[in-house]
Amino acid sequence: MNAIRKFAAGLALVGGLLIVLCAFMITIDVLTRLFVGRIYLNSFELSRLMFAVAVGLSLGYAAVERAHIRIDVLIQGLPAAVRTGAGILAYISLGLLGAYLALRGADLFLHSWRINARPVANVPIRLWVPQGAWLVGLMSFAAISIFVAAVATRHAFARRWRDAEALVGTPSIREEIESSSPER
Hints:
This protein is mainly α. The protein has six helices and no strands.
């Protein structure tokens, strides 16, 4: 599980760096427009593409860290087996959603590759390049979600509810506070 966490964290780090790069490019375009009267980097078009890649690359990390939004008011009072089953079902659903998005993303990537598609703006990049990176993120999201569900299912069959809930359960208030503390 640690290798999956590190892999997901690495992809999320790349996504975060892309967002920082977007901010840097936008700043340069704003300043050049202000002082020179024109933009040089086409940061609007590039940042849209880069943001999609950043989100795709970060979804798997959110799954591993149990950071996806849930409505857990009803779940909290139920027995551990039911809570774990609901969490496993939620992660299977995330994996299936990720697989569907990856399938549609693969169609888009292959179509862009076949026709050698370019962005509408004058940007020196083929669309399949960011679409391919986005697709890697979607595929990793699907695989990570299904893997987490499988490991949690193994724990559940062994009746290790605490271990299963640590993977797919809703984080407790204490876990949320500890994960947001600066010492982490």
